[in-house]
């Protein structure tokens, strides 16, 4: 449907010998002429949404419960899937009640398996839109949107001699991915694994098995009996922690504490953290609106449409009916929250959603926001 | 839906925040006069400003109820329509590859392919294109089904269409001089429109317009008529803007025509069944069918008898409630089966569509009884009827209003003869350029 060409449609055929490239280019032009005003992929996607060259998608093939509120989702990625480095995450876009939501999840499968399947392991959080849906309501067969793997919470090419993992709750996911892929090559691994209770500990059996086999030294911390992990105890639990390259993943409190702890020891460069919690936008009344590309900033109150605020500040705003019916004013909200002046409904961005299109004529700032204009 | 050539500058019309955002008004709103300027009765004269505000609130509530309950079922609906249309198109085009093959004196693949392609083009333009471009499906946040990214199988580029249709027509619906859908500048469909000699031949204009509808839409969206009339007075910047838009239209038409009349026939030629020529005629027929059908549906939306028009001054400082009122009185529905609603892109629910242009089209049917009830409770006429009745009404109007209005003591024949003489002498310049 897009008027613009999909980049993969456009670049196909380059890098081959000249005559072949010419033929492919000709074929592509014909396909384009046949499909206009759509693009060939709009038709091909109906037939094979996972084909190579398509936007990256995946089909959920299994949902396997882990604990009472977590599950491993196995996904067959499209043929464009480029693989990952253990510890990395993907963004997944899933339609819930008809609306597409994007979230990040660490990859938990072993890298380079023969079947080409990938897995993520979400843990349902209270009121969590996507995590609850994935854990409790997702059916095999569902098609999801994917992004290629990314992230630098990974083991280096030359593995360190001594490793420390501290994981809490669902923060174990990137680490389980590393262990599944690289444990054979890691000589000395200590892991502190925290969970609210024994029942809630994700991948507990797998970690215990490694521990029993002597492949890792595991310390379990169940908050209901031991209280929340205090890093002051680290000297007792892992006396040689200063010699270890450390990877820590868990709730914000633990990560902040770890950063302070390693910083204080002058070892900040030995610590790697992964934050799951996207910085959240708390909606307010009015706020500073930044028009990125116009380099204009205005202070708008909670009753003024962003369209008016922008125009008054001299920004060239697209507009039309100015009453919410024509969609001529839609622009991307890059960051922040806005309130629909008709319904009071809040629309906000987070790190995973990317930009969100908004109608500026009926949207007022609900806190600081940045518009891509 | 429609076409309108006027592009008001936003700055000139704006004083503070748009009054149409709210059903309430800071300044008290005036009571509507008994008669319109033209002397005809004002259909909303019996409503007090408070009642109109209340109607606004009631409509806001109906809107909220539907918008809050949009969900997986609605998303599945539009995806299914899109999928059906694309498979239908592919199937029909595949059939046309053999459209030259004759079996017992008929060409079955031509008939099947042409019928399928016609239906596919109609679905693509109406239930899909028109509605997606209205932003009815933007809430799904699927970039592939989004108003900002959609392009349709029609001569008019989506960006220009969205401006003239979504913005001008939907904001200024049936306002004389603001919404040129009132006859698209070539038809006189309301007695309050001034008669000129040009309209004497409007039955011909009307048929020609219907046959070439996609091109007339493109010309309107481009404001070709206005450009030709005002060319000498336009600034260089305006001229450059026009040329850029015109270029865009020409490119779009080229691509569309190449696809339908060159590439697909060429593909058919490759089957060596003598199908190239027949594929070409099939595409031509499908485009004509689509043009005539969309035109038919659209004229039923605003021209049938009983639908109101409004004066420019009547919309100053208009509240959301008053805007709603104008939408209800300025639109008309077509009664019919479910299939018929889909084939009209649910513009058979023109009243509901004009009240809530961004509501998913599959939901209009469920609110229609509520809207009808609301209008009847307030003594407002809910215009609806079968397709035959509504179309018949419009065609009759086109014929009737091709003649000047009847005025006491003046013979219509004399008015026409006088205008004709004037035109022949070359003084007139009455005819509207299109
Ligand atoms: C790089 C990265 C990797 C991630 N990997 C995983 C993973 O492997 N497994 C996994 O379960 N999650 C992971 N997450 C978190 C995940 O992306 C979602 O944030 C989480 O599932 C909650 O989404 P939701 O839609 O259910 O909650 P929402 O509906 O978005 O939020 C509901 C409420 O919970 C709060 N909230 C949002 N996110 C979190 C959070 N992470 N922790 C606590 N409170 C939160 C919100 O402020 C809100 O009040 C990862 C995040 C990142 C950035
Ligand atoms: S200007 Fe028309 S929807 Fe915003």
UniProtKB/TrEMBL annotation, chain A:
The UniProt record lists the keyword Iron: yes
SUPFAM superfamilies recorded: 2Fe-2S ferredoxin-like, Ferredoxin reductase-like, C-terminal NADP-linked domain, Riboflavin synthase domain-like
Domain 2Fe-2S ferredoxin-type: residue ranges: 287-373
Segments forming domain FAD-binding FR-type: 53-156
Keyword flag GTP-binding: no
InterPro entries associated with the record: 2Fe-2S_ferredoxin-like_sf (IPR036010), 2Fe-2S_ferredoxin-type (IPR001041), Beta-grasp_dom_sf (IPR012675), Cbr1-like_FAD-bd_dom (IPR008333), FAD-bd_FR_type (IPR017927), FNR_nucleotide-bd (IPR039261), MRET (IPR050415), OxRdtase_FAD/NAD-bd (IPR001433)
Family matches, as Gene3D superfamilies: 3.10.20.30, Nucleotide-binding domain of ferredoxin-NADP reductase (FNR) module, Translation factors
Obligatory cofactor(s): FAD
Single GO molecular function: 2 iron, 2 sulfur cluster binding
Keywords from the named record: 2Fe-2S, FAD, Flavoprotein, Iron, Iron-sulfur, Metal-binding, Oxidoreductase
PANTHER family: NADH OXIDOREDUCTASE HCR
Protein name, UniProt field: Oxidoreductase
Organism the protein comes from: Knoellia flava
UniProtKB/TrEMBL annotation, chain B:
Composition-biased stretches (Low complexity): 1-15
Pfam family for this entry, one: FA_desaturase
InterPro entries with a match to the protein in the record: FA_desaturase_dom, Fatty_acid_desaturase
GO BP, one annotated term: lipid biosynthetic process
Residue span(s) of domain Fatty acid desaturase: 110-384
GO cellular component entries: membrane
Name under which the protein is recorded: Putative fatty acid desaturase
């Amino acid at each position: 449907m897009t008027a613009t060409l999909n980049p993969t449609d456009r670049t196909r055929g380059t890098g081959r010998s000249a005559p072949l490239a010419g033929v492919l280019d000709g074929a592509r032009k014909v396909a384009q002429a046949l499909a206009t005003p759509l693009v060939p992929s709009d038709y091909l996607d109906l037939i094979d949404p996972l084909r190579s060259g398509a936007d990256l998608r995946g089909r959920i093939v299994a949902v396997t419960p882990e604990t009472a509120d977590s599950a491993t989702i196995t996904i067959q990625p499209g043929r464009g899937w480029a693989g990952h480095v253990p510890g990395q995450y993907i963004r997944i876009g899933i339609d819930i009640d008809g609306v597409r939501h994007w979230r990040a999840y660490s990859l938990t499968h072993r890298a380079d398996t023969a079947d080409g399947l990938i897995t993520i392991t979400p843990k349902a959080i209270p009121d969590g839109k996507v995590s609850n849906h994935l854990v409790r309501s997702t059916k095999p067969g569902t098609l999801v949107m994917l992004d290629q793997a990314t992230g630098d919470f990974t083991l280096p090419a030359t593995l360190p001699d001594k490793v420390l993992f501290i994981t809490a709750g669902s923060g174990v996911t990137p680490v389980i991915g590393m262990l599944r892929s690289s444990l054979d090559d890691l000589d000395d691994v200590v892991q502190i694994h925290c969970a609210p209770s024994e029942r809630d500990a994700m991948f507990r059996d797998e970690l215990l098995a490694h521990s029993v086999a002597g492949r890792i030294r595991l310390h379990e911390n169940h908050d209901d009996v031991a209280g929340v992990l205090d890093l002051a105890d680290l000297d007792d639990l892992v006396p040689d922690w200063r010699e270890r390259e450390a990877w820590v993943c868990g709730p914000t409190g633990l990560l902040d504490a770890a950063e302070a702890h390693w910083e204080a020891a002058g070892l900040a460069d030995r610590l790697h953290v992964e934050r799951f919690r996207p910085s959240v936008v708390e909606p307010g009344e009015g706020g500073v609106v930044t028009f990125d590309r116009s380099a204009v900033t205005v202070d708008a109150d909670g009753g003024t449409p962003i369209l008016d605020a922008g125009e008054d500040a001299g920004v060239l705003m697209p507009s039309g009916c100015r009453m919410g019916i024509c969609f001529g004013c839609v622009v991307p909200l890059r960051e922040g929250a806005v309130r629909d002046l008709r319904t009071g409904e809040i629309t906000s961005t987070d790190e995973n959603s990317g930009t969100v299109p908004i109608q500026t004529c009926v949207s007022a700032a609900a806190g600081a926001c940045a518009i891509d204009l | 839906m429609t076409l309108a050539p006027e592009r008001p500058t936003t700055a000139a019309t704006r004083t503070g925040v748009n009054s149409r955002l709210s059903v309430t008004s800071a300044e008290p709103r005036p009571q509507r006069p008994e008669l319109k300027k033209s002397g005809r009765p004002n259909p909303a004269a019996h409503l007090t400003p408070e009642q109109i505000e209340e109607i606004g609130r009631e409509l806001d509530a109906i809107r909220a109820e539907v918008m809050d309950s949009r969900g997986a079922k609605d998303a599945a609906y539009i995806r299914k329509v899109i999928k059906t249309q694309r498979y239908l198109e592919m199937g029909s085009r595949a059939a046309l590859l053999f459209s030259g093959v004759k079996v017992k004196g008929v060409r079955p693949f031509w008939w099947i392919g042409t019928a399928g392609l016609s239906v596919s083009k109609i679905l693509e333009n109406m239930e899909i294109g028109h509605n997606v471009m209205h932003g009815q499906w933007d809430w799904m946040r699927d970039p592939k089904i989004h108003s900002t990214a959609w392009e349709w199988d029609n001569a008019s580029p989506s960006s220009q269409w969205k401006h003239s249709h979504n913005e001008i027509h939907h904001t200024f619906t049936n306002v004389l001089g603001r919404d040129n859908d009132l006859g698209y500048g070539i038809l006189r469909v309301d007695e309050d429109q001034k008669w000129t000699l040009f309209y004497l031949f409007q039955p011909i204009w009307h048929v020609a317009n219907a046959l070439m509808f996609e091109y007339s839409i493109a010309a309107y969206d481009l404001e070709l008529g206005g450009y030709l009339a005002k060319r000498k007075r336009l600034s260089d910047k305006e001229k450059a803007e026009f040329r850029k838009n015109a270029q865009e239209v020409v490119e779009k038409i080229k691509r569309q025509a190449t696809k339908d009349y060159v590439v697909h026939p060429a593909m058919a030629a490759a089957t060596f069944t003598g199908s190239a020529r027949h594929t070409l005629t099939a595409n031509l027929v499908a485009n004509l069918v689509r043009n005539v059908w969309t035109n038919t549906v659209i004229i039923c939306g605003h021209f049938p008898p009983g639908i109101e028009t409004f004066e420019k001054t009547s919309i100053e400082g208009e509240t959301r409630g008053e805007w709603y009122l104008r939408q209800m009185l300025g639109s008309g529905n077509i009664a019919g089966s479910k299939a018929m609603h889909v084939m009209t892109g649910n513009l058979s629910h023109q009243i509901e569509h004009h009240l809530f242009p961004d509501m998913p089209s599959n939901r209009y049917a469920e609110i229609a009884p509520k809207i009808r009830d609301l209008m009847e409770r307030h003594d407002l006429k809910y215009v609806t009827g079968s397709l035959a009745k509504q179309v018949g009404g419009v065609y009759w109007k086109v014929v009737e209003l091709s003649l000047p209005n009847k005025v006491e003591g003046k013979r219509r024949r004399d008015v026409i003869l006088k205008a004709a003489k004037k035109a022949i002498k070359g003084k007139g310049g009455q005819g509207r350029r299109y």
